[in-house]
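Subgroup meeting minutes
Present: P.N., E.W., G.H.
Scribe: E.W.

1. P.N. recapped why we're keeping a running log of single-chain structure predictions: easier to compare across weeks, and new members can see raw inputs and outputs side by side.
2. G.H. added today's entry (274 aa).
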Amino acid sequence: MADRHSPPVRAALDVGRLRDLVVRPGGLWRELTVVDATGSTNADLRAAATAGANAGAVLVAEEQLAGRGRLGRTWQAPARASVAVSVLLRPPEDADGWGWLPLVAGTAVAEAVRGLTGLTPGVKWPNDVLLAGGKVAGILAERVTTPDGPALVAGVGVNVSQTGDELPPPPADGHPSTSLLLAGAPEIDRTDLTAALLDRLAEGYRGWLVDRTELRRRCLEWSVTVGTRVRAELPGGVVHQGLATGLDGDGRLVVATPEGPVVVGAGDIVHLRR
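Output recorded in log:
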């Protein structure tokens, strides 16, 4: 294992092999672009969606200089130290339950990491992936209004080889950042991880379209929020506290509070110590 006090040697993605693994006849992903650096892969695909880009576009960056997380948070990593990928999809106009989509992406990350490392991550509702007590990945799913109808841009950032001094300071309330390296994963090929993530994401997205019973089972299997006491900090300063008991039909979190069940569709969730 690499020395955790100094940055490991970081190889570039194998673009040709990644494209062969991801862009296949009959597959969901129709084109894949890899750039050395960009401000935000999500921002780039949002612009592309508005300009009429087709569904199935994938954008991967070796370095993201102004990555965005949920609730306006920033996300950055050294070049070649992470997986930074966004996808563009165009769900049917009558599709509902868009709240499932961050969970679909989080579950895809967890399944890909487990398959390649043997480690067991968990999905924190609605858009974080936790490993060994820290946040190893984040998701930003955005609905975009375009002349061709609504589109989905979903971005995923996975910390792969960051050392401790390359991660942001721990938050005052919440999970500190970690990386696969720091969590004890064996050396991992980012090309394989990106391909595995996109493969699982495609499967989850199709499940969202056709079989939400199986999708719900998978999301609950990987959830580390359901069954945990939480504090739900909602927009407008409203706070609820109680036991997260499940997910409703739209992927929203159900929290049992002393005042009765509360359904959370947007907000910040803090896991509370027992």
